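Appendix B: complex inputs.
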Amino acid sequence: MMLATEPTQVPSAGGEQPCALELRALSKSFTLGSGLLRKGRKLHAVSEVSLRVPRGQVMGLVGESGCGKSTLAKMLLGLTSPTAGEVLVDGRPIAGANQKALARHIQPIFQDPYSSLNPRQRIAQIVGLPLRVHGIGSPKEQAARVAEMLDLVGLPGRAARQYPGQLSGGQRQRVAIARALIMRPALVICDEPTSALDVSVQAQILNLLLDLKEAFGLTYLFISHDLAVVEHLADRLAVMYLGRIVEEGSREQIFGAPRHPYTRALLASALTPEPGLGVPDIGLGCGQPDPSAPPSGCAFHPRCPLAEANCERHRPSLNDAEGGGRVACHLA
Amino acid sequence: MNDSLISTPGAVADGTWPRFTRAVLGHRGLALGAAIVTLLLLAALLAPWLAPHDPYLQNTANRMVLPVWHEAGSWEHPLGTDRLGRDYLSRLIYGTRISLFIGLVAALISGLIGSTLGVLAGYFGGRVDAVISYLLTTRLAMPVVLVALAMASLIGGSLITVTLLLGLLLWDRFAVVARSATLQLRDAEYVQAARALGCPLHHILLREVLPNIAAALIVVATLEVANAILLEATLSFLGMGVQPPLPSWGLMIAEGKSYMFFQPWVIAIPGSALFVLVLAINLLGDGLRDISAPGGRNE
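Resulting structure:
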C-alpha cells in the first residue's frame, strides 16, 4: 500500500495544492500487560492508514467500536504520537511541530458534550480559552469574539454567564463547536459529535456543522459509526476495520456500490425506521475478533461470507479500484 | 431535552450558593458539625474578649478551685482553676486557638504536599506514578505517632515543630485521593480539549483538573484537621508536643492526670472539649462527602 494512491478523482484538489490533511502509513500500537519481567502483547490500534482529505471536503470515517477511529483522532490532534508514519497538515508534517501551532490548524469536537466541557467554568471562559491560551486580542476583544461565536452557533448571549450544568446536551455541543471554531482552524476533527444526542437534536447540530463549514471554508474529518449521519454529511468515506482502512471512496460509490464485503455488511446493518423489520441480520456471524490477536491474512476473513482459502493466507493491500476509490479485498 | 434554554432569564444568576446552603441545612449531621465548628472558631478568634481571666496568670492562693456545679464552686471561676491557680475556662478557650491552629496549618501543609504529589502521579502515570507511589508506600509504612515522637524529642517539641511534623506526615490520604481522582479526569474530554489547544501544563492541572477534584480534597482536609488535632493532643500529653505554659488541651489533660482520681473534672473538661471538636469536624467532613457525592451528570 503506502503512497501509491494519488487521488485522481478528487474534484477540488486543484493540482499541486496540498491536501488539508494527509496521513502516510500512520500506525499506532500499544503494549498490553507488560510487567517488570514479562514482555507484553502488541495491540495494533491503527495500522498503516493512508488517507488524503482535500480542502473543503468532509471525509467520513466509519467503523465498529474499537476499530481504531478514536486513536486515529488522538494522533491527528497531537495527543498521542504515532508509532510509525506521519501526519501532514497543509503539506507540512506535524511531528515536531509544537502543540500550539498545531492547535491553530486542527481542533476537535468530541463525542460526549457532558464530559467535553469543564463543569466548573462558565461558558464564556470555556469558549474564550483558546484565545487566552494563544494570547489573541485584549480581554475586551476576546469577550466580543466569544459573543460573536456564541451567536454563530445559535446560543443566546446569556449562555455566556452560565455553567455547562445549566445547558442541555444540544446546547453543550454548540458550546463545544464554538470553542473548536473560535480560532478559525482549517480542519476540524469531529469524533462522533452527535452520537450522544437525541435524534431531533442531532439534525440541528449536523446542519449547524454544515453551515459553519460553508461559512468558514472548513475541512472535516467526521468520525462516526452512524451511517445515516455520514451519508447526510460526508463527501468521501473511509471504512475502517481492525485498525486498517478496507475501503475508501466517494459517498456515491460507498453507498451506491460498496465493494468490500465489510462495507456491505455495515450498510445492511443500518436500522431502518420501518416497522416490522426487526433487527437486520447482517450475516457477520461471530463478533469482532480480539484486536490484540488479529486473524491471519485478511483480518475480516473469519466473518466474511465470501472468504476463500487465499484470504486466510494473504492480506489484501488497499488498491485503486475500478471507477475510483480504493478497496482492500482479494475478491473486489 | 430540547434545545432551548432551560432556565428563564431571571434564574440566570449562578444558583450554586443557595443550593449549597440548602444542602447543608438539609443534612442534620453536617449542620450540627458546621454549627459547633463555627462556634469554636469564633471562640478561638474572640478568645481575648471571651476569656474571663488571663490564662497564664498564676494564683497560688486559688489552686484547684472547684467548678461552679460543685457546692464550693463560684462564678468567679466557672470551670475552676488548675494546680497553679490558673482559670480553667480561660485556658480552655485559649486552647481552642492552639488546637485549631495546629489542625488547620498541618492540614494545609499536608494538603499542599499530598495534592501536588497525587495530581502529578495521576496525570502523568507511568514512571512518575511509580516514584510517587513508592514515596507513598514508604510514608504509609511509618507509624505516625512513633516518628513524630522521635522527631519531636530530637528537635525539641514546640508549637511550630509539632505543626510542621504533622504537616509533613499526614499527606498520604490527600495523595491517594488526588491521584485516583486525577486518574479518572485525565482522559476526560475537556482535559483532552485543553491539551489539544496547547494549554500550558500548569493551566491544565490548576484550572481544568484541580477545581474538579477539589470537593474530594476538601472532605479529606476536614478529616485530616481532626486527625492532626488528636495527634497534637497525643504528643502534648506525652510531653513531646506543645510545651507549658501554652494552654493546649492535650497538655491540660497531662497536667491533670495526677489529680484524676480525686478531681476527675480536670481531665474530663479538656477531654470533652477535644471530643466535641473532633466529633464536630468529622460530622462536617462526612456531611460534606455526602452532599458532594456525585448526584448526577450535571455537577
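Chain A is about 30% helix and 20% strand.
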